[in-house]
Amino acid sequence: MAKEYKCDAIVIYSADFREYDKLLTLYAPTFGKKKVVLRGCKKPTAKLRYASTPLFYGEFVIVEGKGYDIVKTVDSKKTFFNIPKDYEKYLDACNILKIVDANGEYNNFRLLFMLLLTYLSVIDIENSNLDIATSKFMVEILKMQGFELNTTICNACSNSFENKIYFDVDLNCFLCENCRKINSEEVDKNIVNLINTLQIHKFVELVSMSFEENVLKSTKKMLKEIINRQFFLNL
Fold first, then answer.
1. pLDDT tens digits for 179-229?
2. Interstrand relation of 173-176 and 184-187 (parallel, antiparallel or unpaired)
3. 136: exposed, middle or buried (Cβ count in 10 Å: 0-12, 13-18, 19+)
């Protein structure tokens, strides 16, 4: 008799599989990333159809299979209603799911799962600051993978920043004016300060803060470029 197991998980990817099935990529705090089959969910009357889309968060009962494991039952734990209704939120959320997918082998499954769940819960709140939440997630995933950005001292000489600050795209770090390389680009100090703020404050603290819109947009763009280079994505 095939073994069954239960897990909380978020659907981070969904693809057509056979005529009526979907192949889901789940992210769970117990085992990380895993592909499972949700049978019959493409039928109009399918009971589990609601669980076949990315962003779904529920408790899955799964049966071990010879190829892919099979979803037996699902109970919804939280529905992020407001994310799909807002195009910008949905686009950012899908990009974050790509990042989680690319980091599926990260060894602290629970930490990454809780980061994703916190992010989705925050942006699901109406009028939440999407840019600050998305930037915060990107800062945290870089930190988890050992790419924490040092915003207080030059990565080369370890001296504190005094005048201009540069970011080296090859070394993935901030440099002072004396240590900058050919590929180093000058960065607005306000962006560096915002990245520092993102690194030291929690989601719940950040949502009550106000930031200059142009600085926030530029910071988010810069972090997205860093993520793309580090994880070979195209967000």
1. 999 889 999 999 999 999 999 999 999 988 999 999 999 999 999 999 999
2. unpaired
3. buried
